[in-house]
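User: I'm preparing a small set of examples for a lab meeting where we compare how different chains pack in three dimensions. I only have the primary sequence for this one, and I'd like the structure in C-alpha cell form so I can line it up with the others. Please keep the answer compact; I'll paste it straight into my notes.
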Amino acid sequence: MLSILSAGFLALAAFLTPSTAQEELTADALIATINIDDLLAYESTLEGFAYSSPQRNRLIGTPGHDATVQYIYDTVSSFGYDVYLQPFSTVSSSGNATLTVGGVDQGAEYFDLSPAGSAADTAIVAVPNLGCNATDFDPTAVGGNIALISRGECQFGLKSAYAGGAGAVGVIIYNNAPGNVSGGTLSEISRPEGQYPPSVSISQEAGQAILAAIQNGTTVTGTLDVDAVISNITTNNVIAQTKTGDPNNVLALGGHTDSVAAGPGINDDGSGTTGLLAIAAQLNKFTFTNAVRFGWWAAEEEGLVGSTFYVDSLNSTELAKIRAYLNFDMIASPNYVYALYDGDGSSFNQTGPPGSAQIEALFQDYFTGLDLPYTATAFDGRSDYAEFANFGIPVGGIFTGAEGIKTEEEAQIFGGEANVAYDINYHQAGDNVTNLNIEAFEINAKGIAYSVATYAQSFDGIPPVNSTSTAKERRGLRSGSAWEYGWNKQSKKSRRGLVMKDK
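Assistant: Understood. Below is the C-alpha cell output for the 503-residue chain.
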C-alpha cells in the first residue's frame, strides 16, 4: 500500500513539476522556427548600425562594423552559447579614383590597396593576353606609361604588380563582362613581382573602346588619379559553439559581418549574418548529437582575412574536429537564383574536398523537396569557405548571385529579369533592407536550418578530415589549382559562372 502511495505521489510530483526535457532536433522542427519577420528584424538592426554611423556602412574599422560585432556577441551570448571574440590585425583602405581619356570621364573605380598617385596626359598601352605572366609586360612598351589590361584568370594585384615591375606608372583593368568591375582589391599589401602603380578599374565598354582605338593605331593618352588612405586596424571574429553535442565532431558554418565602403551590405552579407543568427536563436532549444560552431567573420571584403586567420590559428587536431563547413554569403539577392557550391565538380570540373559532393547533394535534396529549381556555382576561392577547403575540410553552401547577369534561361526557370544583375545594388549604397528578396531569403534561411539539423545529428557519408597531411599538401591555394585564382574584393562572385543543373 505504501509503495502504491509513494508511486502516486511521485507521479503527481512529476505532473506538477515543469518539464525541462528538450525536443530532439529534426529538420522539420528547426525549419518551423525560422520566419521572415525575425530575419528582417535582424537585418533592420544591422542597417541601423550602418545608417547611424558617419560612413553609413559597416566597413571594418568603422562604428557600423564595431556595433555589428558587439551586437552579434551580445545576442548569441544571450542564447546560451560559448562565445568569444577573436581579435586580429589587418589593413583597411579607402579611396577614390578618376580616369579621363580625351577629356571624357571613364567612370573609373578605386582598387582597394592601390597606392595614391597620378599620371597626367600619359600614353595608354594595351597589355597582350590577360597580364597574368611577367612576359606579357614589355618594359620598353609599358615603362613610363599606363597599362591597359583585361580582367581574367588571375588576381588584380598580380596584374598590377607585373605592370609596376615593368615600369608602368598607372594601371587600368577593364571588366571582361558588361559593366564595371565595381571596384576590386589588389588583395595583398605588396608583392615580390613589383610595386603597385596607382590602379583603377573601368567597364568592359570603356576598356574595349580604348583598346580599339589603340589597335587602330591611335595614340591614346589619359589622366589617371588615385586618392587613397591605407591604415592598420584591429577587428574581431565572433565564434560561438553549442554547449552540447560532441565537440570532437563539429559542424561549422559562417558568414561575414563587414560591408564595403559604398553601403550597409544588407544582402552582402547581412543576409548570411542574420540567417545564422536566426538559426542560433533556435538551435539550443533542441537536443542533438554533434556540436555546432558559428563563425561570423570580419574583413571578408578585405580578402577573406578573418576566416583565414581563424582557420590558420587551429592545429591539425582541432582542424580534424571540423567535419564540414557551410558558407552563406549573399542569400537574398533581389534577382536571385538558388546556386549551390559545386561540390562534386560536375558543372565546373573543380571539386571541393572529399565530402563536399555530399553537402551539395544535401542542399539539392532540400530544394527538390520544395519542388524548386537550383543551379551550381563554382568553387573559385572567393568567399570564406576557401581556407577551410585549403585544409581539406568539406565545404558547401548557398549563394543567390551578385553583379553577374541573369540569363534568359535562368529567368525562365527562377523568374526575375533577364539581362539584369542578380543584385543590382551589389557593393552599392542601395544594398539595404529594401534590396532583399524576402522569398529567397526565407527559403534559403530554412535551407540553412535543414543542413544544420541534418549534420548536427549525423555526419553519415562525410569522410573524416585527414589531419595527418601537411598544410602545404592540403592547400590547393599553394599548388596552382583553381583556388589560386585569387580574391577580388569588390567582385568576389563575378567569376562564379551560374549554369543550370538538372534536379
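A couple of notes for your slides: The longest helix spans residues 438-457. Confidence is low (pLDDT under 50) at residues 1-19, 469-503.

User: Perfect, thanks.
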